[in-house]
Specification:
The chain is α+β, with helices and mostly antiparallel strands. The protein has 2 domains: 4-155, Fructose-1,6-Bisphosphatase, subunit A, domain 1 (Fructose-1,6-Bisphosphatase, Chain A, domain 1, 2-Layer Sandwich), CATH 3.30.540; 166-282, D-Maltodextrin-Binding Protein, domain 2 (3-Layer(aba) Sandwich). It has helices at residues 4-21, 42-56, 178-188, 199-209, 228-241, 272-282; strands spanning 29-33, 39-41, 61-66, 73-74, 80-88, 99-106, 117-125, 129-135, 138-143, 152-155, 166-169, 192-193, 211-215, 245-247, 267-270. The protein has an 8-stranded mixed sheet with strand order 4-3-5-6-7-8-9-10, with helices on both faces. The chain has a 5-stranded mixed sheet with strand order 12-11-13-15-14, with helices on both faces. Strands 1-2 form a two-stranded antiparallel ribbon. A hairpin with an 8-residue loop joins strand 9 and strand 10 (152-155). The longest helix is centred in the N-terminal third of the chain and has 18 residues, at 4-21. The termini are far apart. The protein binds 2,5-anhydro-1,6-di-O-phosphono-D-glucitol and manganese (II) ion (2 copies). One manganese (II) ion binds next to strand 5.
Amino acid sequence: MSDEVGAVVDVVAATAPEIRDGLADRRAYAEGENPSGERQLAADIYADELLCERLLDVDAVGSYASEERDAVVDGGDGRLHVACDPLDGSSNLRSNNTMGTVFGVYEAPLPAPGSALVAAGFVLFGPITTMVVARDGRVREWVLDGEDGDRRLLDEDLALPAEPTVYGFGGRVSEWTDAFAAYADRVAGELKLRYGGAMLGDVTQVLTYGGVFGYPGLRDRPEGKLRLLFEAHPVAHVVETAGGASSNGERSLLELTPERLHERTPLFVGDPGYVDDLEAALN
Ligand code: AHG
Ligand code: MN
Ligand code: MN
């Protein structure tokens, strides 16, 4: 891809193998906390530093923001603004489970509305390393198995399966609201539980097998855990482009504009029917 958005995607693809190779020796906690008050692994910081430096080297990229940084990093007058979670699911590193890098490419300064996304995607560090990118109304999936971001196209029009099969809901069940617990109970009677504790692995289960993933607002945390700009917008853009739906419990996540960079939101993505039912159950 020689175009500007393609240049961003190429950088993420080229950086992914280095992030993955750096995981084994960066499982320890670093000193600080991220702006959401969560402890950081050395791997979080390593991935963030690589991506920030490489992405700001792209002429078209005017700024970079991440889950690991308090403020937006200015990178000149490029028209694209990249928000990313350099290592989503990094708590899965100790248990050697899936995690990945998720990014959104906006045409407006950050924090931006979901409608300003021109592309979004994520790399999944599973048994193999894959990347999905939603842009121009289509989702493509690649295997990242070469050096320097070389990749093999797996699917040039990835679509959410029409038949829902799996579900995964995060947060402590004891903190679920009664309305959500009743909805989850119904879903559990109809679909198979697939919850791995890392959003990108869980969302990929839904994209592969059909169904619904969510991290709801909780009694003690009505805004939920996941971040609107760094996690919800990109994943919603991918799932909606693949024919699915997204919601914060009331409306599409892409209709939301974060006031604060690290604003959290309840997040649901997947089968449009189950997302509709969720909105009805919560309202
Ligand atoms: P991150 O590792 O970037 O902080 O994100 C982890 C997120 C997300 O991947 C996952 O869905 C959720 O945290 C799991 O939260 P719980 O540990 O509360 O289940
Ligand atoms: Mn995350
Ligand atoms: Mn993270």
